[in-house]
Structures are given as C-alpha cells and as structure tokens.
Amino acid sequence: MKIGQALNLRGETDSYERQEAVWLLEHVLNLNAIELKMRQMQVLTHEQEQVFLDGLMRLSKGEPLAYITGSQPFWSLDLTVTSDTLVPRPDTEILVETVLSLDLPFQTSMVDLGTGTGAIALSLAKERPDWKVLATDIYFPTLEVAQGNAHKHSLNQVEFICSAWFEAIPAQKFDLIVSNPPYIDADDAHMDNLGTEPRRALVAEQQGLADLQIIIDQAPSWLNSNGWLVLEHGYDQSEAVRQLLQKRGFVQIQTRKDYGGNDRISLGQHLLR
Ligand SMILES: C[S@@+](CC[C@H](N)C(=O)[O-])C[C@H]1O[C@@H](n2cnc3c(N)ncnc32)[C@H](O)[C@@H]1O
After folding, report:
1. Per-residue pLDDT tens for 68-93?
2. Average pLDDT in the chain
3. Does residue 4 carry a pLDDT above 90?
4. Could you tell me the CATH number of the domain that includes residue 230?
5. 3-state SS class at 168
6. Domain that includes residue 22, residue range
7. What is the pLDDT of residues 122-157, one digit of tens each?
8. Is the same domain home to 207 and 125?
9. How far apart, in whole angstroms, are the C-alpha atoms of residue 62 and residue 114?
10. Rg of the chain, C-alpha, whole Å
11. Interval between CA 65 and ligand 1 midpoint (Å)
12. 82, 188, 190, 253: least buried by Cβ within 10 Å?
C-alpha cells in the first residue's frame, strides 16, 4: 500500500477523522507533515502497514490517538501519555493561561492536585523556572508518567507526592493551588465516549462536584494570604463552584471560558482576616 492510498482509508478529505489518520501515519513512519505530503507514492513495508491498520482499528473503537502514539502536545510540551493517565485537553491550557495572568510572587510556591501527565504543573514550571512546583496524584503509576515527563523536559525542579488531595502533603502554605479534578457525573452522557480513559480521572460524586468541594473546603488552610485557588470544572458547574468559593470566604471570584465558549475555569483569592 502507498502512503496516498493509506491516507484514503479513513474519513472524508479535510475531516478530523482524516487528520487523525495523517497524524497516525506520521507517527508510524516517523515523518513530519511535509515529508508525508511529499512521499505519497512511497510504499509502506508490511510491518508499517500492519501497525497503521491496527492503529486505525483502535481509533474506530473510540480509543484516543494519544494512547496509540503514546504522546500528546500540551502548551509547549510533548507529554508522554499512557492508559494510566487522562489525555490532557486543549481547554486545560486556559487554566495555565489564567494562572500566568495573575499577579503572583516571583518565587511562587504552588501545588497541582491530581497532576495526571503533569500537564499543568510542568507547563507552569517551564514558563516560571523560579517557582517551587509540587505535583500530586492519588495513583502512583500516573505519578510515574508525570515524573517521566518532568525528566523528558529537564524540569527536574518539580517535586512529586502520591497523595489523596492534601492528605500526604507535608504541612506548608502555598501562594497558588491549581487542580483539574474529576468533575463528571457518573450518569453523564459524555461518559459513553470516554470509556478508554481512567474512571478515577473523570468521575466524581454529587453531580460531579464532590472533589471540587473537598479541594475548595480544604484549600484555605494551605494558602498564604492573597494566595489563589484556580480550578477547572464542567461547563455547567461554574455557578455551583463560585458559590462554594464564596461560602469558603474566597474573594475576587471569577470564571473564564474555554476555547468552545463554555465556562471552564473558576478562581478565587484567599485573604487572611
Ligand atoms: C481530570 S484528571 C486531570 C489530569 C491533569 N491534571 C490534566 O489536567 O490533564 C484528574 C486527576 O486527578 C487524579 N485524582 C483523582 N482523585 C484524586 C484524589 N482523591 N486525590 C488526588 N488525585 C486524584 C486522577 O488520578 C487524575 O490524574
């Protein structure tokens, strides 16, 4: 099979399905987009063809491309992704952008709760090399992937702790707490398309609000005065999250929208009274 023929096997021209097939073939052949375009007549080896067809089959069963290629771009980083991690989403980059827009100390001390691949913690560590960055996750194999990503990008200043939210973190105060916790209700229709990603990364009780509530309740004890809590949440949860922040005494409460125009990030500042 030639490259040109292989690319016709999935989706209409210019469709997202076709683009995914292009990315998959770039990965299988270790070529970039331009090289692939220039070599439409090149014949795939038997092994390349088998790996490509197997990848197409996995895509058609709903598996994310990142699990097949083993990596996902996020912010300025190429992150290793495994079945132990959530695939980082472009909308989470809004959380990184939001944090970078805040007035924070030069040597901010921060924690990313539920770091997954390390997407948020490592992007911020890359942008702000003087920050003291801690990243946690409840699941040790996930944390190992995040640690591997830190080494891959020489972000060796980032520290990692296996912890259920704040439980195993040594007593200290942060200038910034960030989290993209599980926030989907178990009965949400979106779960039908998310079956290949770890449930522990996605689902929370109380209509998806249980983990957000734990973090909001506990965060003030871990924040310096003027410190910020920045949270990702579901498109329909911003009002509930703002209310929880207000009840816990946060000020300057705001919500930011994602690339699709949905409420996605809410934040508040903690003031010592
Ligand atoms: C939605 S994923 C976010 C991953 C990553 N921060 C990102 O934005 O791509 C939620 C993460 O929280 C972790 N997690 C779930 N429950 C947790 C808990 N009780 N304590 C700490 N981490 C938890 C999961 O293992 C998962 O990696």
Report:
1. 999 999 999 999 999 999 999 999 99
2. 96
3. yes
4. 3.40.50.150
5. coil
6. 3-61
7. 999 999 999 999 999 999 999 999 999 999 999 999
8. yes
9. 24
10. 20
11. 20
12. 190
CA-to-CA separations, 37 to 22, 48, 191, in angstroms, rounded:
10, 17, 36
Q: Are 125 and 158 in contact (CB under 8 A)?
A: yes
Determine the 3-state secondary structure of 221 from DSSP: helix
pLDDT in tens, 192-230: 888 889 999 999 999 999 999 999 999 999 999 999 999
Query: Is residue 147 located within the same domain as residue 232?
Result: yes
- Protein residue with least CA distance to atom 4, ligand 1: 116
Closest residue by Cα to atom 19, ligand 1, is 164
Taking the C-alpha atoms of residue 152 and residue 175, their distance in angstroms, rounded to an integer, is 27
The residue whose CB lies within 8 Å of the most ligand 1 atoms, and thus the one to mutate among 111, 138, 206, is 138
Share of the chain above pLDDT 90, in %: 96
Residue 87 sits in the same domain as residue 172: yes
Q: Are residues 219 and 99 in the same domain?
A: yes
Residues 191 and 227 in one domain: yes
In 3-state terms, what secondary structure has residue 100? helix
Question: Which ligand 1 atom sits closest to the C-alpha of 85?
Answer: 27
Whether 67 is in a domain gets the answer no
Domains identified in the chain, total number: 2
User: Which comes out higher in pLDDT, residue 190 or 78?
Assistant: 78
**73 domain-assigned:** no
For residue 121, give the ligand 1 atom closest to its CA. 6
* Ligand 1 atom at minimal distance to the Cα of residue 87: 9
Residue 157 sits in the same domain as residue 247: yes
Q: Give me ligand 1 centre to Cα 4, in Å.
A: 40
Q: Is residue 28 part of a domain?
A: yes
Q: Which of 85, 180, 190, 231 to mutate to test the pocket of ligand 1 (most atoms within 8 A of CB)?
A: 180
Domain edge (last residue) among 11, 30, 61: 61
Least confident interval from 2-11, 189-198, 243-252? 189-198
How far is residue 224's CA from residue 179's CA, in Å, rounded to a whole number?
17
